[in-house]
Design a protein that fits this description.
The chain is of the alpha/beta class. Helices cover 40% and strands 12% of the residues. The chain contains 17 helices and 9 strands. The chain is globular, with a radius of gyration of 23 Å.
Length: 410
């Protein structure tokens, strides 16, 4: 998000010259880099127009001069100067330290733009996270912030006992991370097999009504859980899975949601507790069920990405049913049901162990890809093992692309 100085400088440039304001974008950018900002921000709020919010959605006092021109300036600038930092959030409790660190490692290996990790964890895990992350050899590319697990004080007990102790923390991220415009939330059991940049780019594909992106819970209705067992509304044919959730948080905070509790539309912070009170006896998967209910009533607000962006055991344990993964490989692996830590799905466990044991800086082909392929070939007695090549197809491409970028950078 640009500072208020951009707004002020752009308006000043346009007022002093004739012709199209676009012609002066480069000049304005140069001035932004060379002029101090602290004494020039009085005319525009620092909560200004973001790339994701059109000028007509703004309060009248956001920009003190002309929000239309500021919006135009920002839009053009952001198209040519993409965000320099991606924000990724995870919630870790109990025995999830190692799993979370492995997920973070997978995010770092291939990503291009800098990452900022927002780690919500129980207090006793903070020192361990700090000790491990401070040793990561990517200073400048990776930053992190540790947060305690927090819920609204008047209802903390109810939220803590919903599904798993920390799971519903994700529902409150738009309210806690007030200065974060967009965020990728992932469960601890996620592994990135291609750059985070690629799923982050879906933000640019949102239309004017979409505020979040998730993948379907199932591809095959015959084995779907929601369409067979749910006792509450859910999105689409088979529901959505919240293990990988891309959010335009600015839009989420501003939206008024349709609901089945009142004819009045409610904002994010107003709707969560009433939803829990109404459906708490009918929901099995906790916060994911609440998100399904919310997007059932507001389907225009969800962008749905394909199954290879959230590939789970259900996509192969009964036979392969994620066609896009068969064609392009798995982009993001989601090892739910604890499959990274038992012998029920050795294909998933092999990928997890390979990334966990990889040492930063080692050759990715010889230290990661080749040992992993050998392990995957041992799993062909399982349904997932029979399609083991989808587990390395995209990983192979990601490694090749990474080495190509490094060669160009020399």
């Amino acid at each position: 998000m640009f500072s208020c100085l951009n707004c002020l400088l752009f308006v000043l440039l346009c007022s002093m010259r004739q012709g199209s304001c676009k012609a002066f974008l480069k000049e304005a950018d140069s001035l932004v880099k060379t002029v101090g900002v602290s004494h020039l921000c009085s005319r525009c709020k620092n909560l200004s127009v973001s790339f994701w919010n059109s000028y007509w959605m703004l309060p009248s006092d956001v920009c003190g001069v002309n929000c239309f021109w500021e919006a135009a300036f920002r839009y053009d600038y952001m198209k040519t100067h993409p965000s320099e930092k991606m924000h990724l959030a995870v919630v870790a409790c109990g025995e999830r330290l190692e799993e979370t660190v492995t997920m973070l490692r997978s995010a770092i290996i291939f990503s291009i733009k800098p990452l900022h990790f927002h780690i919500f964890a129980e207090d006793q895990l903070h020192e361990s996270f700090k000790d491990i992350l401070d040793e990561f050899p990517y200073e400048g590319k990776v930053n992190y912030t540790l947060y305690p697990i927090t819920f609204p004080s008047e209802s903390a007990a109810e939220w803590k006992k919903l599904f798993k102790p920390c799971a519903s923390q994700r529902l409150f991220l738009p309210l806690i991370l007030k200065n974060v415009d967009s965020l990728l939330y992932v469960d601890t059991d996620i592994l990135f097999l291609r750059p985070v940049d690629d799923i982050w780019s879906f933000l640019g594909k949102f239309n004017s009504t979409q505020i979040a992106a998730m993948a379907p819970e199932h591809e095959e209705p015959r084995i779907g859980w929601y369409n067979r067992f749910a006792r509450h509304p859910y999105y689409g044919v088979t529901g959505i899975n919240s293990g990988v959730m891309l959010m335009n948080m600015t839009r989420i905070r501003r939206k008024y949601f349709k609901n089945d509790m009142t004819p009045v539309r409610l904002q994010w912070g107003e709707i969560l507790m009433p939803l829990l009170k109404k459906y708490k006896l009918n929901i099995t998967w906790g916060d994911q069920d609440l998100l399904n209910i919310m997007f059932f009533h507001n389907p225009e607000s969800l962008y749905v990405f394909p199954c290879q962006w959230n590939y789970r055991p259900d996509h192969c344990i009964y036979g392969s049913n994620c066609r896009t993964a068969e064609e392009e490989g798995i982009f993001i692996l989601h090892g739910n049901r604890g499959v990274y830590h038992d012998d029920k799905q050795p294909t998933f466990r092999a990928v997890y162990e390979a990334i966990k044991n990889y040492s930063f800086g080692d050759d990715l082909v010889h230290s990661l890809l080749q040992p992993l392929e050998r392990e995957l070939q041992k799993t062909t007695h399982t349904y997932c093992g029979r399609v083991y090549k989808v587990f390395i197809k995209q990983l192979t491409k990601s490694i090749r692309d990474l080495y190509a970028r490094r060669s160009k950078g020399r």
